[in-house]
Design goal:
single chain; mainly beta; 8-stranded antiparallel β-sheet
Length: about 325
């Protein structure tokens, strides 16, 4: 059947076509929007977290979708911070502290809380990481504002800049990173771990960074208290890598700050030490305005240390590799897991 009579056989199709014609291009656009609710922005320069999961790219647990009426946080590229959050969330209050990112409105359309601001802004750029370990090291930033899961990846192959918040960042808070074993890919590291995986929130160390109103940058190296809890089966094992903070500009306050398993037992540090949550020891260094701090990751291999996330070193390989050895400093990282 040809011509106008064809539509008599299918009146629904005819009415749908008429509605499209009346709506024009906007009609097609609206239907596309109705089909794709609370969609993660594409081509916005963001880092998709677990894009194949229910979270679909948002910096949320992989089994949690972004739904209407929610603030949905996202990950920015390394060295950058989110510039979007609930304008009503001005202090660290339990529920409001989760309101980071974009807002999914009642129509399932993502809205920028601050329309004139970009998705991401550069951090202070005052804390750098130099990796001298035998493979990549995943630094996993916690999502704040958000649920504080360690989901935002910075994969340090040789060098990277951490995102350091200045006082303009949300509620004046800093940034925290969990530091994973060398050779674990960000996809495997920046997740909720367990005592069987030793990654993510079960990584041995963390680092906190922040710049104050005077331009002074602080960085603290911390043992993760979960590493030495009584229920942790590997609580006495020393990891096979360490960390130290260097001050290349020479304008630093505080003593040396280092976690070195070749000389330190679990939960021991060197420098301006203090005790934090869960009895975890940490050390801190600060650099004045205009200076930078450099976090050095180095490899150690010694009896009783953890060679990989599930492996202990045997006595036959009881050696200590210097953090500044040529082999470790210039070796090409192996392919991540």
């Amino acid at each position: 059947m040809k011509g106008p009579r064809a539509f008599v056989a299918c009146p629904a199709a005819f009415l749908l076509l008429i509605s499209f014609a009346k709506a024009g291009r906007g009609g097609f656009y609206a239907i596309e929007k109705r089909e794709r609710k609370c969609q993660f922005p594409k081509n916005a320069g963001l880092v998709a977290v677990s894009p194949g999961s229910v979270a679909a790219g948002w910096a949320m647990p992989p089994d949690q979708p972004c739904t209407r009426g929610m603030y949905c946080p996202y990950a920015c590229p390394p060295g950058n911070l989110s510039a979007q959050w609930d304008p009503q969330a001005t202090s660290y209050v339990k529920e409001l502290s989760r309101h980071g990112g974009l807002y999914c409105d009642g129509n399932g359309i993502m809205q920028k809380p601050f329309p004139s601001k970009p998705y991401c802004v550069p951090g202070a750029g005052t804390v750098e990481v130099t990796n001298k370990a035998i493979a990549n090291v995943a630094f996993c930033q916690t999502v704040l504002p958000g649920d504080e899961g360690q989901l935002i990846p910075t994969n340090v192959v040789h060098f990277a800049i951490l995102a350091v918040p200045d006082p303009s960042y949300w509620a004046g808070t800093g940034a925290s990173y969990y530091i994973n074993f060398p050779g674990v890919s960000p996809e495997k590291a920046c997740v909720w771990g367990s005592k069987d995986a030793r990654r993510g929130n079960w990584a041995p160390y963390s680092i906190g960074t922040k710049m104050n109103e005077h331009g002074t940058t602080f960085a603290s190296l911390n043992w993760n208290p979960i590493w030495f809890e009584k229920a942790t089966p590997f609580r006495a094992e020393r990891p096979n890598f360490g960390l130290r903070i260097e001050c290349p500009s020479g304008a630093c306050n505080g003593l040396s700050c280092e976690i070195n398993p070749s000389i330190h037992a679990v939960n021991e540090v060197t420098g301006s030490t203090a005790v934090g949550a869960g009895g975890a020891r940490f050390c801190t260094m600060a650099v004045s305005k205009g200076g930078k701090l450099n976090v050095v990751v180095f490899q150690v291999l010694l009896e009783g240390s953890t060679l990989a996330e599930n492996t202990s070193v045997s006595a036959s390989t009881a050696k200590v590799y210097s953090a500044v050895s040529t082999t470790l400093q210039f070796a090409s990282p192996r392919t991540p897991n």
